[in-house]
Amino acid sequence: MSASQPIRFLYARAQTPSRHCSRRTFQTATCLHARPSPKHRSIKASDLGLIKKKEAKPQVTSKDLRPYSEKEKIGLAKRYTPEQLAAIEIGEAAVDPNDLAEQGAAREDSMKLNYLDDLSTIHPVVDKPIRAPEENYDPNLRFKTEGELTDDLTNWVKGLPDEPKRLDWMKFSDSTRVMVGKPEAELNPRSYLAPEIPKLDMLKKNVAGSEEIDASTRRLMRQTGFDHKEIRRFRVKNLIVHRVVNQTRLGKISRQYFLTVAGNGKGLIGIGEGKSSEFEEARQQAKNAAIRNMQPIPMYEGRTIFGDVKGKVSATEVELMTRPPGFGVRCQSLIFEICRCAGIQDMAARVTRSRNHMNTVKATLQALLSQRLPEEIARARGRKLVDVRKVYYGGNV
Q: Cβ distance 14 to 6 under 8 Å?
């Protein structure tokens, strides 16, 4: 074999023009490599002067963050105690004005102010020009209790004439005060913050006193320690409902079967089974059994599980996988209802081999209870676990 043959072969390859292999297209648009290139180059709008540069807006400087003057301290002394004033001064001294000036930025939204203001003074155009005097402020202002309102109504009824009119009630409703304190603080308040709403005794009454509780619920309350209000707040879902038949020498005996899941949406989950000849009795049995069997499951950040876990019951295998925030619960309908009752918000699941509904529910609960916490893994390995989120982000992430 001569040496000229490979040289001629390479030369022939170089002279061959590059062609795109023909492919079958499924659209009418032209391929990107076959489209003609534009005749004129692209010109930016900034080069043509169509975009106007925004003017630099004044930023906050350290000179704007001046300490309190003597006049301002006298005004603060009327509102705060000496201990509170000392705490305010210590807090102001601990903050460096240069840091506030560097980190502070002017607002860029549509609701920004057209001027630089710390909102400490009243603007004659934007703000309310007339303000109530400081003497109208009453720190002890509160709503009247239920007993005080009842006394006012009783005194008004005792003073009614023999033939009361509608005008008397209108005068009473307009003149009766609903707060205790200075009248000026209620009619012309210095502050527009509403006082705390009173907790009436009638709202504290137990729901059990207004309706009857059956014997099964009372037994459940004694066994679990939950009151009637908490039991009514649990999320209960009937996952499997079907009819079962038992063949005996007397014939076929049919009954109803229920498989129910219950949870509080905050990490408590349990399943229960019920079987009875009556439909409602079987449903109640399954519900009480699910509440009685509730167990806490570990949840990462209160939204997902710790790592990937697996569960197996008979021929059914379930694999649960953790997911980032906003992923949602993407899984089978039965597993979705279990996650909804437990309060899990981000998780994925896969069911392999047999997909029997009863075994799927039991395998899912088995997988949720088999999670291993990072603290347990670190303790088993003899290591120390440090959460870097609390170190660098203060636990806010």
A: no
Helix, strand, coil: what percent of the chain each, to 5? 35, 15, 45
Distances (CA, A) of 314 to 149, 275, 311, 363, 365: 66, 22, 10, 9, 14
- 285-332 pLDDT tens trace: 999 999 999 999 999 989 999 999 999 999 999 999 999 999 999 999
Residue recorded with tokens 């527009």: 192
DSSP 283-341: HHHHHHHHHHT-EE---BTTTB-SS-EEEEETTEEEEEEE--TT--EES-HHHHHHHHH
The DSSP-derived string for 2-44 is: -THHHHHHHHHHHHSPP-PPP---SSSSPPTTTSPPPSS----
Q: How many CB atoms lie within 10 A of CB 317?
A: 18
Residue 180, SS3 per DSSP: strand
The first and second tokens of residue 370, run together, are 């088999």
| CA-based radius of gyration for the chain | 37
Task: List the one residue out of 235, 253, 234, 232 whose CA is nearest residue 244.
Answer: 253
Q: Which of 304, 136, 280, 292 is nearest to 219 (CA)?
A: 292
Are 314 and 345 contacting, i.e. CB atoms less than 8 angstroms apart?
no
Q: Which residues of 216-230 are buried (b: 16+ CB within 10 A; e: fewer)?
A: ebeebbeeeebebee
Q: What is the pLDDT of residues 338-379, one digit of tens each?
A: 999 999 999 999 999 999 999 999 999 999 999 998 888 888
Q: Which of 145, 198, 149 is nearest to 176 (CA)?
A: 149
Please, are residues 59 and 101 in contact by the beta-carbon 8 Å criterion?
A: yes
Q: Tell me the angle at which helices 279-292 and 215-224 cross, rounded to the nearest 10 degrees.
A: 10
- The CA distance from 237 to 241, in Å, is 11
